[in-house]
Amino acid sequence: MSFCDLAVSGVANLQPYVPGKPIEELQRQYGVRNVIKLASNENPLGPPKAAVAAVAMAAKEMARYPDGNGYALKLALAEKHQVAPEQITLGNGSNDVLEMVARAFAGAGDEIIFSEHAFAVYGIVTQAIGASPVVTQAKDYGYDLDAIHKAISSRTKIIFIANPNNPTGTWLEPEKIKLFLEKVPEKVLVVLDEAYVEYLNMEENSVPWLQDFHNLIITRTFSKAYGLAGLRVGYSLSHPEVADLMNRVRQPFNVSNLAQSAAVAALGDEAYLQQTRDVNQAGMKQLVAGFEKMGLQYIPSRANFITVNVHTNAFEVYDELLYEGVIVRPVANYGLPQHLRVSIGLAEENQRFLDALSGILGRG
Question: What is the C-alpha to C-alpha distance for residues 66 and 240, in angstroms, rounded to an integer?
Answer without folding.
Answer: 23
